Hints:
InterPro entries: Cys-tRNA-ligase (IPR015803), Cys-tRNA/MSH_ligase (IPR024909), Rossmann-like_a/b/a_fold (IPR014729), tRNA-synt_1_cat_dom (IPR032678), tRNAsynth_Ia_anticodon-bd (IPR009080)
Largest sheet: 5 strands, parallel
Protein name: cysteine--tRNA ligase
Oligomer: single chain
Distance between the termini: 48 Å
Strand content: 15-25%
Helix content: 40-55%
Bound molecules: zinc ion
Number of helices: 15
Family: Belongs to the class-I aminoacyl-tRNA synthetase family.
Pfam families: tRNA-synt_1e (PF01406)
Enzyme class: ligase
Strand order of the largest sheet: 5-4-3-11-12
Amino acid sequence: MQCLSRxxxxxxxxxxxxxxxxIRPGNLCTSAAAGRGATPSGHDTGIQVYNxxxxxxxxxxxxxxxxxxxxxxxxxxxxHAHLGHACxxxxxxxxxxxxxxxxxxxxxxxxxxxxxxxxxxxxxKELTMTPLSLARAYEEEFKQDMMALKVLPPTIYMRxxxxxPEIISFIQKIILNGHAYSTSQGNVYFDVQSIGKRxxxxxxxxxxxxxxxxxxxxxxxRDFALWKSAKPEEPxxxxxxxxxxxxxxxxxxxxxxSVFGKQLDIHTGxxxxxxxxxxxxxxxxxxxxxxxxxxxxxxxxxxxxxxxxEEKMSKSLKNYITVKEYLKSYSAEEFRMFCLRxxxxxxxxxxxxxxxxxxxxxxxxxxxxxxxxxxxKGQLNCQPxxxxxxxxxxxxTKVNVKAALADDFDTLRAVDxxxxxxxxxxxxxxxxxxxxxxxxxxxxxxxxxxxxxxFLEQLGISVHQKQVIPIVIIQAxxxxxxxxxxxxxxxxxxxxxxxxxxxxxxxx
Length: 508
Ligand SMILES: [Zn+2]
């Protein structure tokens, strides 16, 4: 999916709000007595979710039954995506699929691509490219990597550089509301003290210091930049405060608000984004909208780190494997199974052993499906099947899987429940002598195969490998004239035959 142009995005936003005006009922954000994660009212999804705002598990209630609104921080596109990024996006893709496929909740997801930033400027200088061409190249690569990992694209991609006027207006209103100030150097800072104890929703849990570089005119070290004045040879936009560019946090607040307004159901990102990034996003939005609670649920995914390395996988630490390197040895399905076999908010260790374990889990599942299908076709002759045990086991699995997924998306428990069902299925699929035919029970095995295949498909794992069909080209002898492929192609004995002929010779 391409980034929306400004006009296209406005049209989409209008459609969204026109179609489901009740996505933003009234003009008020959720009321939060303490300004810290009040449980929202609204449509009950039937899911319990760990909310970083309240630091506890609570009912996931969304504003509109028609569609949940979800904002996801996107990548800063200055280098290749690595498995640490992939892990976060795949885990949230699984959660998104669980919500839509298992709980019937439609989702409107917005993701912003950060295409201007200090790292992009630095890297573009190293590679003697313009920051914009560097950003576009890595944005395209990011999208291809996500597609290769079967991560569904967001409903709307947005780019920071295509929305600078909106960002400037957003900052102006925060200043007008008394929560930000400009300095003589042409910077604009958020005045953290102006919101008192409302600042610090995530600080206690994740970090306790804001390390943004100081400006001599900054009122407090905790204040953070909304607008940065341009240094020589940096890209810039003209603003009421001089030439400059937006700070990092303001882009997410502005663009999320531009689509969803004052009320957001779900906000996601890696745990390292909780502070200061999400903390500052909240401060900006609540200062802009003058509301008690802008985003209702903040979900954070745990880090991925290499075995024996306590640090998270990151570019700056040079301890990473790119998505492309990974895909040379393993598949998207195996990585997804690796992600399913841990809780999304836990740190997870990547190693040859852990990915091989995921590969083996998939092999066990696929091998059971093959055996069960062989049994269905009468190619496996077994002792009489104890159907009651299998029907009971299948029904119990369905209940356990739904309960696990409703419990803060516990995919590990859901996969375990399915593996238990496979264990019961395999115990009875023992081949016996081919001479004697026992009574057969295809229905129960058919139902088990259907359920397991559907379970995997709903989570983004395709069990039906695409068949590679050989193609043979039959060529008429001509080296000088015009060659064409001659339809219809003939499919015979699992092979496509294509007649490749020369038009000139044929007409002669
Ligand atoms: Zn963000």
